[in-house]
């Protein structure tokens, strides 16, 4: 038979094990809570980070996407350029004097890209040129290059040169809801067109 002393020793041992387990559980819980904030806390931090980025102009708000407008401009027939051999690309020229944030400039370039594509793929538009689109889409991976121009005056000169050469062209104007004044010409989009032709227009410009 087990003696009273052995029973007490066994009981104390069991109590010690249970106590150690409880301490480990509580310690682990609080360590996890400290190292891994709650979902609501993480969401709050993300919101604060986004708001801070917006204040510095690095993030484009939803309202910017909804209200930016594009300049229609004249549609030109670019089919004569189909005879020019070589790679086809699209060029996006960003105004530097506006000092747009990176997010703002990226959104404006997206507007220009979409506008150019819509014009050149629209069967009812004089700019319709499916052959050029096919060369751009399947020839060299829908190549695009982003360049910079000092001001609107020089942008307008590039725009006129592009039209005179039969290059599909588009100027994006901002609605003025953030960062810059309403109606500001932000990005000039050119192409898709043969690289050789676009280089005649923008070959002297620096990368953005």
TrEMBL record:
It catalyses: an N-acyl-L-alpha-aminoacyl-tRNA + H2O = an N-acyl-L-amino acid + a tRNA + H(+). Coiled coil: none annotated. Its EC number is 3.1.1.29. GO terms for cellular component: cytosol. Belongs to the PTH2 family. This is peptidyl-tRNA hydrolase. InterPro entries: Pep_tRNA_hydro_II_dom_sf, PTH2. Residues 42-81 are annotated as: Disordered. It comes from Diutina rugosa (Yeast). GO terms for molecular function: peptidyl-tRNA hydrolase activity. It comes from the Eukaryota. Keywords: Hydrolase, Membrane, Transmembrane, Transmembrane helix. The chain crosses the membrane at residues 12-31. Residues 61-75 have a biased composition (Acidic residues). It holds the Pfam family PTH2. Gene3D superfamilies: Bit1 (3.40.1490.10).
